Amino acid sequence: MMQAKTVLIVDDSRVSRMMARQYIGGLHADWTVVEAATGEESLLKAREVAPDLVLMDVNMPGMGGIAAAELLRQEFPAMPISLLTANVQTATRERAAAMGVGFVEKPITEARIALLLSPLEAA
Amino acid sequence: MAAMHTLPAGDRLHLLHSVLCAVNIGAVVLDGDRRIVLWNAWMIKHSGLNNDKVIGADFFATCPGLRGGRVDAAIQQALYNNFPSVLSQSLNKSPFALHANALAVARNERIQQAVEVTPIAVEGAPRHCLIQITDVSIAVAREKLLREQTMVLRSQTFSDGLTGIANRRHFDVAMEKEHRRAKRGGTPLSLLMIDIDHFKAYNDHYGHQKGDQCLIQVAAALAGMLKRPCDLMARYGGEEFAMILPETDVEQATLMAETIRARAHELAIPHERSGTDLRQVTVSIGIATQKVETPVDLEALIGAADRALYQAKRAGRNRIAALLP
Amino acid sequence: MFNLTELENDALIEIFNIGVGQAAASMSAIVHEAVHMSVPSISFIPRAEAARLLGARDAAEPERICGISQHYQGAFETEAILMFPEDKSLEIVRLMVGESVPLKELTEMEQEAMCEIGNIILNSCVGTLANIFQHELEGSLPQYHLGTSDEILTATGSGADTVVLMLHIDFLLEKHQIHGYVAFVLDITALHDLKDQINLYIARAMGQA
Q: Could you give the ipTM of this predicted complex?
């Protein structure tokens, strides 16, 4: 029996968070989805709930997704993090690779979410 | 003469096909799976690829270099979103391998291209797309000429009062431009810093008027060595000159620096206070090259040339030294 | 004045951010530099106010700006215009094309470059909108305009009582931060179509459709 996982979705767009929650719930109704609207908030929530996966929007006001991902990486070296971005360019790929995080292209679709969740399902 | 719409469908199609093949622009049509269904006479002529080689073939198998680039994105916009795209000549340098003639092929000189990708609705089949390629080589050449003429005019406010060559302001502007251009075009960029050896001693011994004449002579000789319009020789400081050599790698820059050093020596301007047995004016040269694989900041490139110049001075002057930034 | 709820506003901004994000990736591939674009906010304003927003600093002598327009029709109809205030237009061209040219001397080649930039950004924005709303549209080729904002809005066929959906765009390239606008000229029918489509999208996001 697979353990119920916790996913932290970080995005300043409420609709975006709703959509991610919707898709994750559709694939795994028993998993917990926690939301954060800013990079700063993501750090607080991560400490609070110790998520099994973090989905981090890159384009956010204030701290921004990349800076937040870096801080999370430092504090939680083993936590799987995936950047969400519509702007996939060479610099982004390299930055993600250097930080040891994945990245996923926006718009968020059910298929893309399924792909992100599959490594967790194996555990 | 029958109006087109009164012709039977088969003849009409034939007429349209003939027109498309005869027009003086490249026309390529792809079906929904990106297979080539039309490759007109202009394309055959300028690509060297006949219909039997391309019709039915996958577009990216025929033009592998275009995969993942702007043309690819434009084809996707047309086939999936039903939107047309333009690819300007200035942002997309000759994406297709098209040449004006056999000589151009040998010289690897492509036609300058303006490209449009447009969706085409086809009854009973998924959307197709039309790629139109226009030869804009003449317009580009004309603009280049105009720009060069403007530069000539403009350089008159960018010239050094004493020597008549480019001044520091001109150098700064040109350096920034060439740095950007090298990055865009993926070409190496070299910078030479040239300094007259023991110039203060020359001024002290011969007087400032002769000092000025020496500067004029050296500047003229060095400027006369420039081979291409994009190369620039500028007066960087009191007795310091800078030479910008775009599209020039380390070997070529080193060769040029050595030639300059020799030329300055050849001038045989007497210098009793040169501090060596030579007793004539010489120059030291610092070389820095930004390689294609390792682009750097402008400051880093100039800094490296400066440090190389210092190295040449320390090693005894009348010589060249090169450093990578 | 036409208004959206906070949620509808959020949804539309997110959609446009995806659009300009993809445009930025395309532009990045052209200049081999990191390019970032985002839409921090949107507003619905009457046409007259839209004209004022763009460089009409001195009402007696309004500044000239550079605009690229494309017409879209099909499931909805709109004229989309990418505009940069005068002092920024030449900066964009200079950065993308790599040449230093005053706006007055913008050559035909650079106008074409500007057209392509507009084409990329507008197609990306509208394309994302069309995809997310699952609707089919037709687009036109880009047209270059140089004039006052008022002249450009008139030239692109917006009557006095049309509403303009204004996107504020932040454009970042080589540490140059440039603020521009994309204006969508919409009539009443189009506005309501838009509102309906956004709500369908939100309903799908909430699992209700």
A: 0.87
